[in-house]
Design goal:
A hairpin with a 6-residue loop joins strand 3 and strand 4. The chain has helices at about 20-30, 105-120; strands spanning about 1-10, 50-60, 65-80, 85-100. The protein is of the alpha+beta class. Strands 1-2-3-4 form a four-stranded mixed β-sheet, covered by helices on one side. About 15% of the residues are buried. It contains two helices and four strands, in the order E-H-E-E-E-H. The mean pLDDT is about 90. It has a single domain, classed as 3-Layer(aba) Sandwich (Rossmann fold), CATH 3.40.50. About 25% of the residues lie in helices and about 40% in strands.
């Protein structure tokens, strides 16, 4: 599976680091014996899919943040009626967290918790 990290709005400005999250996600998947592949072969190789992690953070007040973390797994599928190929979301989970100065760590910890659920599902 390939991994895609999307930081929306001002998430990076608030200190959330895309490369750190990418490393966290890939490490958790490898610990669960899930193979990471290049995004270009998703859809061409049977059994591959894409895990997307979307982070959206808003500043609620000076030192409080609200963050939505969404993890979605998609893979190639065939529409029976038309026999057309599509990429379909087959698993998704979303969490809303609030945090103060510990925003980065809360996002990382919550993302790891979600990936644990994914790996055990």
């Amino acid at each position: 599976m390939s991994v895609q990290i999307d930081l929306l709005d001002k998430s990076e400005e608030y200190g959330i680091e895309k490369m750190t999250l990418q490393s966290d996600v890939e490490l958790q998947l490898r610990k669960a014996a899930i193979r990471i592949v290049n995004d270009s072969i998703v859809g061409e190789t049977p059994g591959t899919g894409r895990l997307s992690v979307r982070i959206n953070t808003l500043r609620a007040c000076e030192s409080r943040y609200a963050t939505q973390i969404e993890v979605e797994f998609s893979e190639p599928a065939t529409v029976i009626r038309t026999r057309g190929r599509v990429v379909a979301a087959i698993w998704t989970i979303s969490r809303m967290i609030t945090s103060g100065d510990n925003l980065r760590q809360r996002v990382r910890d919550t993302t790891v918790d979600i990936l644990t659920i994914f790996a055990n599902d």
